[in-house]
Amino acid sequence: QVQLVESGGGLVQAGGSLRLSCAASGRLFLVNAMAWYRQGPLKQRELVARITRGGSTNYADSVKGRFTISRDTAKNTVYLQMNSLTPEDTAVYYCNVVVGVRLDDYWGQGTQVTVSS
After folding, report:
1. Model pLDDT for residues 92-104, shown as the tens digit of each residue
2. Which residues are CB-neighbours of 3 under 8 A, at least 6 positions away?
3. Closest by Cα among 14, 31, 32, 7 to 94
4. DSSP class of 27
5. What is the DSSP secondary structure assignment for residue 29, as one 8-state letter?
6. Is residue 76 a contact partner of residue 25, using CB atoms and an 8 Å limit?
């Protein structure tokens, strides 16, 4: 099993910044990718950013140039630096990790990000 603990969400004004963290623990013998997803009010969950085992990253078009995903491999932690936030970024942000040869994925409990106008 893998446990994910997210932190860093909160309330911020438009134009502000937040940094999310997700610490993973447990059976992490092969981490294929770590990612952030979000689910806004009345919206489907969507991929925000992903970083692979090799360090490649990809982002949703809506956050390119504003958000940066990074990781600390030694700490099994992934970060999401969010800049120039807008009310459209308001959502619950979920950490996701894909591990093992079977590509099992695990989810964090979510952290609320609210951007006021």
Report:
1. 999 999 998 888 9
2. 24, 25, 26, 106
3. 7
4. S
5. S
6. yes
